[in-house]
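Whether sequence alone determines local backbone shape is best considered at the level of individual chains. We regard such an encoding as a compact summary of how the chain folds. The sequence in question and its structure tokens are set out directly beneath this paragraph.
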Amino acid sequence: MSMPALQPLSDEALMERIIQRDQQAFSILYDRYSGKLLSYFKRMLWNNHDLAEDCLQDLFMKIARQPELFDVSRSFRPWVYTVANNLCKMEYRKNSTRGTKISLDKTAELADNHVKITEKIDRKDFIHKLKEVLQTINEPHRSTFMMRYFDELSLKEISAIFECSEGTVKSRLFYTLRKIATKLPQFKYA
């Protein structure tokens, strides 16, 4: 099957072909997810571009070397974000053993369709303050918030990634939004 013929296939169908060692299917899947996952890694790993690229390559090397680790009866997107989240956790552990302070220095801006900021607030100032607040939030809550509002994952996908109920995801989001609203009273959420 030619590459254009593979384009409309679902992620799961592409993984089935990757398990059969189809390099074109791998290329298409890489093209679909590399940009999103690189952005995710950058946000989660202190905006360290080199580290984000290393993690992205590690993730896709795992897929290339052991595609059979993916259960084709499940959804690909939550699975790949679970792998990405686990790679981030490994980096957090490495970072904590080095005693380096975690910083979300250059966190990307929130998607406009998810967060409405009053016109009076300077967006740059808000983002700076938001980064400071996010630094004070524990990792599962921060990751949940970022997956929902930066990566636009559904509640169902996030619950699959963290292997918890959708209620737990909603609770984490509520807690995080409440903390942000408390620290940044100008932040409004629905």
